[in-house]
């Protein structure tokens, strides 16, 4: 388990080679071991379809149980992970360049919004549509080598998912503004330490006041809250996937010692 964790750099740090001509990738994930668990964040949007099994998807402050035919979405730099509840667990995952979604005029519906709202408010798949979604994911998998088919199946997924969904009132987040705080989010992702709001503002070339306002408006929390929650979730993932001591894990994630980390883990019911 320790070697496995070392190879994964404690989190699933994916590098996607997306571009204007290739803005979408489709992945096939199959898990047989109930102990499989990871926590991740990345710039790209993510839309996953569960084909079989059962899993719990985790965000910073929200958890949801998914059954076959249900879909999860992840926004830009949104920390997320999963726990397996029933195996074998198979999923098809679309990884999408956010700029491609923001600039697309193919659909009249707002397909950017589902990735930007809080996970609680994202569109859900009705029971009578779940088999249709599973079949869509299987067809997409068969055509995943063709970049044009990947786009078509992604838009079909979003069209089906958003068929009866309305953007929650008050959701007017700007994609351009979200890009403006990207360097701060990259900093959180790449370094496991306490990062001050001032340092985060600096890498974004913004005043601390402007950065605080922009970040809280887009992420619905302060930068300090976000960065702390990410380190806590990352440390939990590290503990679950390695044999290292709590002391070692705590210090590697920027906590002073094991008791400091435990203070944050215990309220979540995690040991």
Give the number of DSSP strands. 6
Order of helices and strands: HEEEEEEHHHHHHHHHHH
Radius of gyration: 19 Å
User: Largest sheet, described in full?
Assistant: 6 strands, antiparallel
Q: Could you please say which CATH topology of the largest domain applies here?
A: Jelly Rolls
Share of residues in helices: 40-55%
Please give the structural blueprint.
Elements: H1 2-7, E1 24-31, E2 37-40, E3 45-58, E4 63-66, E5 71-74, E6 80-96, H2 98-103, H3 113-116, H4 130-142, H5 147-161, H6 175-180, H7 182-190, H8 197-203, H9 208-219, H10 223-240, H11 246-252, H12 258-265
Antiparallel strand pairs: 1-6, 2-6, 3-4, 3-5, 3-6
Key features of this structure:
single chain, 271 residues, alpha+beta, Jelly Rolls, Arc Repressor Mutant, subunit A, 6-stranded antiparallel beta sheet, globular, disordered N terminus, disordered C terminus
Task: Describe, in plain words, how this protein is organized in 3D.
This protein has 271 residues and is of the alpha+beta class. The chain folds into two domains: 2-161, Jelly Rolls, CATH 2.60.120; 175-268, Arc Repressor Mutant, subunit A (Orthogonal Bundle). The protein contains twelve helices and six strands. Strands 1, 2, 3, 4, 5 and 6 form a six-stranded antiparallel β-sheet that branches. Strand 3 and strand 4 (63-66) form a beta hairpin. The longest helix has 18 residues, at 223-240. The protein is globular, with a radius of gyration of 19 Å.
């Amino acid at each position: 388990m320790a070697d496995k964790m070392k190879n994964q750099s404690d989190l699933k740090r994916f590098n996607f080679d997306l571009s204007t001509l290739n803005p979408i990738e489709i992945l096939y994930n199959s898990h047989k071991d109930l102990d499989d668990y990871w926590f991740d964040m990345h710039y790209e949007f993510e839309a996953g379809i569960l084909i079989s099994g059962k899993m719990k998807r985790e965000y910073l402050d929200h958890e949801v149980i998914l059954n076959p035919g249900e879909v999860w979405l992840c926004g830009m730099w949104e920390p997320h992970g999963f726990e397996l509840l029933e195996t074998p667990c198979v999923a098809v995952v679309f990884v999408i360049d956010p700029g491609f979604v923001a600039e697309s005029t193919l659909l009249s519906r707002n397909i950017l919004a589902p990735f930007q709202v809080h996970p609680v408010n994202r569109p859900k798949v009705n029971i009578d549509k779940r088999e249709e979604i599973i079949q869509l994911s299987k067809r997409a998998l068969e055509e995943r080598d063709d970049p044009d088919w990947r786009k078509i199946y992604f838009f079909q997924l979003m069209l089906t998912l958003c068929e009866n969904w309305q953007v929650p009132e008050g959701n007017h987040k700007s994609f351009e503004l979200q890009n403006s705080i990207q360097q701060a989010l990259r900093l959180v992702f790449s370094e496991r330490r306490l990062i001050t709001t001032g340092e985060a503002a600096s890498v974004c070339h913004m005043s601390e006041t402007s950065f605080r306002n922009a970040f809280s408006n887009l992420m619905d929390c302060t930068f300090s809250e976000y960065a702390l929650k990410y380190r806590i979730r990352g440390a939990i993932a590290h503990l679950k996937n390695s044999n290292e001591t709590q002391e070692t894990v705590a210090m590697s994630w920027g906590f002073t010692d094991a008791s400091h980390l435990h203070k944050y883990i215990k309220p979540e019911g995690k040991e």
